[in-house]
Specification:
By secondary structure, this protein is of the alpha+beta class. The protein has one domain (4-300): Sandwich (Jelly Rolls). The chain has helices at residues 33-43, 54-70, 106-113, 115-125, 152-155, 189-192, 200-203, 213-218, 293-300, and strands at residues 4-7, 10-13, 19-20, 45-48, 129-131, 136-140, 163-168, 179-182, 224-225, 234-238, 243-245, 254-263. Strands 4, 5, 6, 7, 10 and 12 form a 6-stranded antiparallel sheet that branches. A 4-stranded mixed sheet has the order 3-9-8-11. A two-stranded antiparallel ribbon has the order 1-2. Strand 1 (4-7) and strand 2 (10-13) form a beta hairpin. Bound molecules: 2-oxoglutaric acid and fe (ii) ion. InterPro entries: Phytyl_CoA_dOase-like.
Length: 302
């Protein structure tokens, strides 16, 4: 087991100044929407063990692994249930959220949009909830990791009460590159008032706030935090929480999905509501030139 983890190109020791391998656990608040709302506003996220039915999550995982195996993505000499990536699929693979529709099985949708999940958001919003029609499904191979961002810049044209749900499909250790949240980042007003007002398609950016995870600790006073996730666990994120993922240092796919929920009565960002959803008009176009993070930082003045 390695005790050093990476976000982007920076390595951090476990449970040091930069990275905690522990997330505050909000599961005891389940069933108390007012307390959950308060915790979400205080912390910028909720980590809830047993959010989903673990058996349903494992059934969906089995279906996805089977489809990955059918496509030759898994090592045929290892148990399919381990999700070990085929040797010839490791190098240069990405964890793109596009082209993954074949993994979005009915069992996956049942977990993400079934009655248990929708009831949670109905109660949290205090009114009927709805969801986007796009699932950011990630089968992240060895070496992959997500950059530092908040979600607002990708989906901010509709309801401002939008929330993200990050669902790990299986047992995900820190070695496997899970979601990492930056504690306190939802309170950084200067960041929210500049970077947080961007729209990746309008501003032609990748949506990344910084390429240096240490900067968020040393300069802004945050701390990165993640944990070992079990089937059934989930994280609810507010739109201004800065997060990333650790780099996947294992030989397995890290399979997770992020989905979005909002009050049904509020407008939906028109990129994500259609069937099929339109998606990013600029970010996902071929050949567009995007502003670098360094250029964006000058524009934001931070
Ligand atoms: O799973 C990841 O790598 C990133 C997740 C994320 O950005 C999100 O849930 O909004
Ligand atoms: Fe995100």
């Amino acid at each position: 087991m390695s005790t050093s983890y990476a976000i982007g190109d920076r390595c951090f020791e476990a449970d040091g100044k930069y990275l905690a391998l522990e997330l505050p656990d909000s599961s005891p608040l389940l069933g108390d929407p007012a307390a959950l709302r308060q915790r979400l506003s205080d912390d910028g996220f909720l980590f809830i063990r047993g959010f989903h039915d673990p058996d349903a999550v494992l059934a969906a995982r089995r279906d996805m692994l089977h489809r990955l195996a059918e496509r030759g993505m898994l090592d045929p000499n290892q148990p399919e249930s381990d999700g070990v990536v085929a040797a010839d699929k490791r190098a240069g693979a990405t964890s793109s959220v596009r082209g993954n529709d074949y993994l979005k099985t009915p069992s996956v949708r049942d977990v993400l949009y079934g009655p248990r999940t929708m009831k949670f958001f109905d109660e949290l919003f205090g009114q009927a909830a709805t969801h986007f029609n796009f699932e950011w499904l990630r089968a992240a191979p060895p070496g992959a990791g997500s950059p530092i961002h908040c979600d607002m810049v990708y989906m901010g044209r509709g309801s401002q009460r939008l929330l993200t749900l990050w669902t790990p499909f299986g047992h995900i250790t820190p070695e496997m590159g899970p979601l990492a949240v930056c504690l306190n980042s939802h309170r950084w007003d200067d960041v929210i008032a500049t970077y947080g007002r961007d729209d990746v398609d309008r501003n032609r950016t990748r949506g990344v706030f910084s390429d240096d995870p240490a900067e968020l600790v040393d300069r802004f006073g945050g701390r990165w935090a993640t944990t070992t996730f079990e089937p059934g666990d989930a994280v609810v994120l507010c739109m201004y929480n800065l997060h990333a993922s650790l780099k996947n240092q294992s030989d397995r796919f890290r399979i997770s999905c992020d989905t979005r929920y909002q009050p049904a009565s509020e407008p939906l960002d028109d990129r994500w509501g259609g069937d099929p959803p339109r998606g990013h008009e600029v970010l996902w176009s071929d050949g567009v030139e995007l502003e670098s993070v360094a250029q964006s930082r000058v524009r934001w003045g931070i």
